[in-house]
Description:
Elements: H1 2-11, H2 23-31, H3 36-42, E1 48-49, H4 50-56, H5 62-74, E2 78-82, E3 90-94, H6 96-99, H7 102-112, H8 126-136, E4 147-153, E5 156-163, E6 166-170, E7 179-183, H9 185-192, H10 198-203, E8 207-211, H11 213-219
Parallel strand pairs: 4-7
Antiparallel strand pairs: 1-3, 2-3, 4-5, 5-6, 7-8
Amino acid sequence: MKLQKETENRQGVRNRWYDDACGTAFALDLIGERWSILIIRELMFGPRRFSELRAGLPGISAKILTQRLEGLEASRILKKRKAPPPVSAQVYELTEWGYEAEDIIQVLGKWATRHPNHDPTLPLSAASIMMSFRTMLDPDRVKGFSAKAGFRIGRDQFVVTIRDGAIETQRSETEGADFIFTGSAEMLAAVVYGGEPIETLETAGLLMLEGDRKLAKQFVTLFPLPEKLPQEV
């Protein structure tokens, strides 16, 4: 028991031990606690301040967020540093190894959305909707498509570039984008995954689209959700 506790402290994993040499079991020791994977998701597009992480994860308490950040830092998944002016605040960012977890997040997300109980109308963070585009991009639908899409979601701005079948996402100013969507992540999800007409949400004042409308309408068709599991008989 003493050896086990010392091993946990040295490796920085959470206070749980599966006693299993499988890499999957150890992965759960590293990121299996509630909120851990979602914190990693929020950091996938660059450093975030503590307050920004809480804004993206409104259900988490300050105490739990602090604990998870400390655990992920001890596990070498993220690190903290002082951002240069004009930010001049402590930020958290993924390590190079931490960024490799994107594949895990994508596979989990695509796998889970096949369940009939998955509800795409639930609240989403800006990082979540951006990650969903990277996850759900269909290799057949994207053939021959090229565009630079801008998104203004609250205080967050992103540019998504699709070219030669590949997608690149940056947290940056949207100037120069072929088209720009302004609205909440939920409204974007309603268009992309719920099939809601863009014009309907524009009329209701819930979404705004600027720029090349034809290209934008093609963009929102590139991310089909996977086929649902059949209902139990």
